[in-house]
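Give me the fold.
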Amino acid sequence: MLHIIWDTRGYFFWLLAVSLFCWILERLAPWRPEQKAFRKQIGQDLFFLIFNGHYAGVLIAYLSNYLIQQMNHLLSGWRVPPPESIHLLAGSPLWAQFIIFLVSKDLLEWCVHNLLHRVPWLWEFHKLHHSIVELDWIGNMRFHWMEIVVYKSITYLPLVMFGVNGDVILWIAVASTLIGHLNHANLKIDWWIFRYILNSPRFHVWHHDVILHGEHGKNFGIVFSLWDWLFGTAYMPAEEEQPTRLGFEGMEKFPEGFLPRLIHPLGSSLRQG
């Protein structure tokens, strides 16, 4: 376990470092001073931080590697090269790989996030993320493991063909986690003139408003707010305003226990199907 935590080449070390950084920022300059650090259900969110931040990814990686091998075996029978052998960015500078991959990945994930709100059976899984009523940095990690499956399944083929360097993948993962933590943090940040490009706590808090401000909600950006401004899904009122209540309509019927929260979406999705 220790080698996982302290290996600075691994994502889990940086997840803990970024988490500690955001926790300190919230203690120094909280947007909502009355909000406590150890709030209700913090224990559940600590589990989600560790499980979703490391172990779920490892388990899903093992399964996906097997499925990818089967797919590549099938493609070889048709004399089609495996997608990961295409390497569109091979030979490109690392900074170019970083920018192209990050922007492409974020646009695809913006689309997936839209689907999570628009497709009823996907929304059943996404409800867990929106069940948080006191938004802070660790809320970034409260999500159902099925969301990882959905995101990875939809974005795998277009992204793997870039053939990006492994270090670049790690840098992007760390940067995305930092922005994700900050977006959910109890901090009054809007990035000033860059607010129309980069997501922020002041922008993202309205995504968690119990009032949708649109048929399926607003502010779906992950790293960049740019997509919401471009595609008409942005909502950002006056600087001092905050939502009066976070969550979603009908949340009183959503279970509060840890295991029921993981099981509930599975049953609801089957009924929807």
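Residues 6-27+39-272 form one domain.
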